[in-house]
Design goal:
Number of domains: 3
CATH class of the largest domain: Mainly Alpha
Structural class: alpha+beta
Strand content: 25-35%
Shape: elongated
Oligomer: single chain
Order of helices and strands: HHHHEEHEHEEEEEEEEEEHEEEEHH
Helix content: 25-40%
CATH superfamily of the largest domain: DnaJ domain
Number of strands: 17
Radius of gyration: 38 Å
Number of helices: 9
Distance between the termini: 100 Å
CATH architecture of the largest domain: Orthogonal Bundle
CATH topology of the largest domain: Helix Hairpins
Largest sheet: 4 strands, mixed
């Protein structure tokens, strides 16, 4: 039976780019992969056909030969495939066919393919990266407003000083794992190709320790309470995270350390709340100050300031103090301070004060109490 045209196999045009070619192959390879079609010989043959077509067309030299001579190209090469192409040492742009299979495995299984990270079939590094850590830090309102530096205590794993993180007793060293020969991986056959997994004997490190360190018992790590300085940026808010690279758990046997994530929790303030970068506070004033106008002292993050109360100010009116808020994180300038005025009604009056207020009430009218007058006029009109 004659072989199908490689471009038809992949469903692409002859002038297709390398990226589009790879995209087409990945899509079809996922569809016909034997692991998704167990026992389906037709799907297995289709997968082999796809792989052969991609191996040829993704290599610039082989693709050029194929475009000129078709399947007859290279027919005389020793060790060639059924169409004359030798796939044993195939590489496309410096990436082996295992790289492509690694991508396919990621699509099929939702993770890394053969070889662990990305399925590249490479030798594993002896080191293993450390875990990330997370800690919540309480910050005062003022520290959030202006920034601060705090020292926190973090329990974490650090490299063992006795064996310098190797896990082996001083004067000795780790030996190459005899099960994986130092690769950190073992392979087994599945279908017509090999699956690679971390070595169970050395846990993927490629080394075993026959004489472990007495301090860390072979782990290369010890637990320690570390003091770490954290810079709190001005304008930070509750729930935001700061990343301290390399301040997490130590890596195993030379692996990189994890990161430390500092989660901010701003403590409540006696006077202030915030709305993004604006500061909000409430200030009580007397009936006379609201009616006649006044100048009152208002607390701010930088101390007390004088603020003018306009005559006729109503309760809950908000007055604005420009640039008295928090620093704008990641930007320039500051927010404002919003002052909510609360007109206080007196609760204990002398007889003289009551008489004066009665006299004031008798003299009042629409001009003195515009809201009061407007409200009852609307009620009167409503109910006739």
């Amino acid at each position: 039976m004659s072989k199908r045209d490689y471009y038809d196999v992949l469903g692409v045009a002859r002038g297709v780019s390398g990226d589009e070619l790879k995209k087409a192959y990945r899509k079809l390879a996922v569809q016909f992969h034997p692991d998704k079609n167990p026992g389906d010989k037709k799907a297995e043959e289709s997968f082999k056909e796809l792989s052969e077509a991609y191996e040829v067309l993704s290599d610039p030299q082989r693709r050029q030969m194929y475009d000129q001579f078709g399947h007859a190209a290279g027919a005389g090469q020793a060790g060639g495939g059924s169409g004359g192409f030798d796939f044993g040492g195939f590489s496309a742009g410096g990436a082996s066919i295992n790289d492509i299979f690694g991508d396919i495995f990621g699509d099929i299984f939702g993770g890394a393919g053969p070889g662990g990270r990305g399925g590249r079939g490479r030798r594993r590094s002896a080191g293993r990266p450390g875990a990330d850590l997370r800690v919540t830090v309480d910050v005062t309102f003022e520290e959030a407003a202006f920034g601060a530096e705090k020292v926190i205590t973090v329990p974490r794993s650090v490299g063992c000083e006795t064996c310098h993180g190797s896990g082996a007793k001083p004067g000795t060293q780790a030996s190459t794992c005899d099960q994986c020969n130092g690769r950190g991986e073992v392979s087994f056959q599945q279908g017509f190709f090999a699956i690679t997994r971390p070595c169970p004997k050395c846990s993927g490190t490629g080394q075993t320790i026959s004489d472990p360190c007495g301090t860390c018992h072979g782990s290369g790590q010890v637990k320690k309470r570390s003091q770490i300085a954290v810079k709190i940026p001005a304008g930070v808010d509750t729930g935001q995270r700061l990343k301290l690279s390399g301040e997490g758990e130590a890596g195993e046997r030379g692996g990189s350390s994890g990161d430390l994530y500092v989660v901010i929790n701003i403590l409540p303030h006696e006077f202030f709340t915030r709305d993004e970068f604006d500061v909000i506070c409430e200030v009580p004033i007397t009936f006379a100050q609201a009616a006649l106008g006044a100048e009152v002292e208002v607390p701010t993050l930088e101390g007390k300031v004088k603020m003018k109360i306009p005559a006729g100010t109503q309760s809950h009116k908000i007055l604005r103090l420009k640039h008295k808020g928090l620093a704008k994180l990641g930007s320039y300038g500051r927010g404002d301070q919003l002052v909510r005025v609360l007109v206080e009604t007196p609760t204990k009056l002398t007889q003289e004060q009551k008489d004066l207020l009665k006299q004031f009430q008798d003299l009042g009218g629409a001009t003195a109490h515009p809201m009061h007058h407007s409200f009852f006029e609307k009620v009167k009109n409503l109910f006739g």
